[in-house]
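User: I'm curious whether this sequence folds into something compact or stays loose and floppy. Could you predict its structure so I can see for myself?
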Amino acid sequence: MFTLCTSFLRVFLLAVIWLMTALAMSA
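Assistant: Here's the prediction. I'll summarize afterward.
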């Protein structure tokens, strides 16, 4: 269960970083 939460958090963080990069490039 802990491993599942950790992997989900990692994917969430990666998605946030990817979105920030996409917004910065489009701006």
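Summary: Helices lie at 2-26. The two ends are 39 Å apart (CA to CA).
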